[in-house]
Design brief:
Radius of gyration: 34 Å
Shape: elongated
Pfam families: TRM
Number of strands: 30
GO molecular function, one term: tRNA (guanine) methyltransferase activity
Strand order of the largest sheet: 15-14-16-13-12-17-18-20-19
Family: Belongs to the class I-like SAM-binding methyltransferase superfamily. Trm1 family.
Keywords: Isopeptide bond, Metal-binding, Methyltransferase, Nucleus, Phosphoprotein, RNA-binding, S-adenosyl-L-methionine, Transferase, tRNA processing, tRNA-binding, Ubl conjugation, Zinc, Zinc-finger
CATH topology of one domain: Rossmann fold
Number of helices: 24
Oligomer: single chain
Helix content: 25-40%
Structural class: alpha+beta
Subcellular location: Nucleus, Nucleolus
Distance between the termini: 70 Å
Length: about 700
């Protein structure tokens, strides 16, 4: 786009080349780009012959003076001003005019100066007085890279900077093609991608590539590899391709098991995706036409893999076509695309979404979370799991509107993103079952105890009675808040995670393996010490949503269901049996050991504390949400009591009561149940004089109030 037409306009007794034939303007803020049709005498932009630049773009002031053909004894007009604005004058006055009005206010770029131009290059809106058209026309700049004409100098500088950030650093008027050296080639998981400058800053580039999301891409690849083992081939969609790195990894490693479609609504990103496909020796199918890179294919092996690249809105392509696997990774929240994703996704398919709006999900911008997700949240010690349950609740509501239910397979919430992977179950019954798991949460702001509200529509007279703690009776005012609505079901599927771990080992994804091991232990609520690696992928009999996984120990049930429903009642009975087996799922939420530590006491090591909790008869595991978090089914009172029992006092200078406190702490730890039942006596004890405090009455609730103080 943008070819100079040979039109001549007489101005001040000289011929000046300007754009002619046809002008199409598109206003974008302060910028206005004009598209010019080509003349038969001028070569096309795609040719290698250099284009002629505008006369206002010069390297030196002397070059600008040559255009005026200065002579001492003759009056000459300004080459960049119309006669109505600046009349012809002698050389000394014209020199000052060119230097002060045009050259000093120019914009410099790669040795060229884009001087201000007053010629009628920009089409103007019709004026009431036709004779004043030229006098009303303002000055403007001509972009050396594209065909834009911009009025303000600051806007022109910003316009040039955007070209530089996109890698368009060489002028179309001087050379046609952009230099290859401006594209940096990065490699990840045996896949090469070209990226533009500032590729890690989404505001400055169209093709965003974040190296910190490598773990996220590996987890999604493992989930897709597990689905590819269930049924082949599967149609998968990367709705926001950017550089196309994720779709390229799918096609390069899974090959004929998947049919990859990479979509992006940005034209520059689509071009970058096509170049990256050719760089990785992949065929590109664009608009039902295949473009084969013959040179790249000749050097490598015979590769029949084809990647379809589309340029349309993500909602449009998900409405038009059906897929088995859909991944959503927009910039920010993904709630705007959930309805389209669940509209045509196939039964027993998988939808994965990455949410990067962590400021709202992590309760830093609570009003944004209310606007996007319809949830009331506050900052808690378990804020990452709270964010994951907020996203799953939004996913559940979107799926239920399409008469589909979900089963959560994987949930990961780290510093930069929240990843949710769900399996789609078609039908109103699964949709109803999933919708029933969206409930409100009662959170105590004093001790951070929490519990989901009971099911039912009846209004309770005192909702504080549902909380295990007694902070409302011992503390003044309102002590609890209602958060949500949230997802109250399980966050993981153990069998799916084990198969993901198997795929991660098979494809050598080293970064994902430690996290997957932690997720398996968290799903089973066991410590890593009890993690078993002997039961491999083939030896595990796993049933998910009525899908049987092939196992050597089963005879009649060792088969795969390739995304189709069974007409008999075998699948329904298996699903009911699975519900009864999963009754002992992992407990909701976790406790931070630092948050509940006792003032003046050294808490035990985390692994030892996990052992103490398991010895007390509770299920316990670490969590990936918090490195110092403990997921357990123990009540908070028992959690604090065991923590205080095995904590040692911090000895300081002049402290003589340390051994006494330690001995009495052990004695208090042996009386766990008595300490839990004696909360009312402890409140009266706090109102007594401090001199009456002795080691014999140093109970668990006293330490709790010390932390509150």
């Amino acid at each position: 786009d943008g070819v100079v037409a040979s039109g001549k306009v007489k101005s001040n007794k000289m011929d000046v080349k300007v754009t002619g034939s046809e002008l199409e303007t598109e206003e974008k803020g302060m910028e206005e780009e004009s598209t010019r049709e080509s003349d038969s005498n001028i070569l096309d932009v795609s040719s290698d012959y250099p284009r002629e630049k505008h006369i206002s773009i010069q390297r030196h002031l002397a070059d600008l003076e040559k255009l005026a053909d200065l002579k001492e004894d003759e009056k000459k007009p300004c080459p960049l001003c119309p006669e109505e604005k600046f009349k012809a004058c002698y050389s000394h006055k014209l020199h000052r005019h060119l230097q002060n009005l045009h050259w000093k206010v120019s914009v410099e770029f790669e040795g060229y100066r884009m001087c201000i131009c007053h010629l009628p290059c920009r089409p103007v809106k019709p004026n009431l007085v036709g004779d004043q058209t030229f006098s009303k026309m303002g000055a403007h700049y001509h972009c050396i890279i594209c065909s834009a004409t911009i009025t303000r100098r600051t806007d022109m500088i910003g316009h040039i900077n955007r070209h530089v950030n996109k890698g368009e650093t060489e002028s179309r008027f001087i050379t046609v093609t952009a230099p290859k050296s401006s594209h940096e080639v990065l490699k990840e998981s045996a896949t090469d991608v070209q990226v533009l400058p500032n590729y890690s800053t989404p505001q400055k580039t169209d093709s965003y590539f974040n190296p910190k999301m490598k773990l996220n891409r590996q987890l999604i690849f493992c989930a897709l590899a597990v689905l590819a083992e269930e049924r082949k081939p599967i149609e998968c969609l990367d709705a926001f391709g950017a550089t196309g790195i994720m779709g390229l990894q799918w096609a390069k490693h899974l090959r004929s098991s998947v049919k990859v479609t990479i979509n992006d609504c940005n034209e520059n990103s689509v071009t970058m995706i096509q170049e990256n496909c050719h760089l990785n020796k992949m065929k590109v199918k664009l608009n039902t036409k295949e473009e084969d890179n013959d040179e790249a294919m000749a050097d490598g092996e015979g590769n029949t893999d084809t990647i379809e690249v589309t340029k349309m809105d993500a909602n449009v392509i998900m409405h038009l076509r059906s897929f088995d696997f859909i991944h959503l990774d927009p910039f920010g929240t993904s709630v705007n695309y959930l309805d389209s994703a669940f509209r045509n996704v196939r039964n027993l398919g998988i939808v994965s979404l990455t949410s990067t709006d962590i400021s709202s999900l992590y309760a830093k911008a609570q009003h944004v979370a209310l606007r996007h997700y319809g949830c009331n949240i506050v900052r808690t010690e378990y804020y990452k799991e709270l964010a994951a349950r907020i996203v799953i609740a939004a996913v559940t509501r979107a799926a239920a509107r399409c008469n589909k239910g979900i089963e959560v397979l994987l949930t990961v919430a780290l510093e930069h993103f929240v990843l949710v992977v769900v399996r789609v179950l078609r039908g109103p019954s699964p949709a109803d079952d999933s919708a029933k798991k969206i409930r409100y949460l009662i959170h105590c702001q004093w001790c951070e105890e929490r519990i989901f509200q009971k099911e039912g529509n009846m209004v309770e007279e005192n909702p504080y009675q549902q909380l295990p703690c007694d902070c409302h009776g011992s503390m003044p005012g309102k002590t609890a808040v209602v958060l949500g609505p949230l997802w109250s079901g399980a966050l993981f599927n153990t069998g799916f995670l084990r198969r993901m771990l198997f795929e991660a080992v098979q494809y050598g994804l080293d970064e994902a393996q430690p996290l997957l091991k932690t997720l398996v232990c968290e799903a089973e609520c066991t410590t890593l010490k009890h993690f078993s690696t002997h039961s491999s992928y083939d030896e595990n009999k796993q049933e998910e949503c009525g899908v049987y996984i092939k196992t050597p120990n089963t005879s009649a049930e060792s088969y795969l269901v390739h995304g189709k429903r069974k007409s008999d009642e075998v699948i329904r009975n298996a699903a009911k049996r699975q519900k009864s087996e999963n009754s002992a799922e992992h407990p909701a939420f976790y406790y931070n050991i630092h948050r509940h530590s006792i003032k003046g006491m050294n808490m035990p090591k985390l692994n030892k504390f996990l052992y103490y909790l398991s010895e007390a008869g509770y299920r316990v595991s670490r969590t990936h949400f918090d490195p110092m978090g403990v997921r357990t089914n123990a009540p908070l009172a028992q959690f604090k009591t065991i923590l205080m029992k095995y904590s040692t006092p911090t000895y300081t200078g002049g402290q003589t009561e340390g051994p006494v406190h330690l001995a009495e702490d052990v004695q208090a730890g042996e009386q766990v149940q008595a300490a839990a039942d004696g909360k009312a006596e402890d409140v009266e004890f706090l109102e007594d004089d401090k001199s009456r405090v002795t080691a014999t009455t140093f109970t668990e609730d006293y330490a709790t109030h010390c932390v509150a103080d």
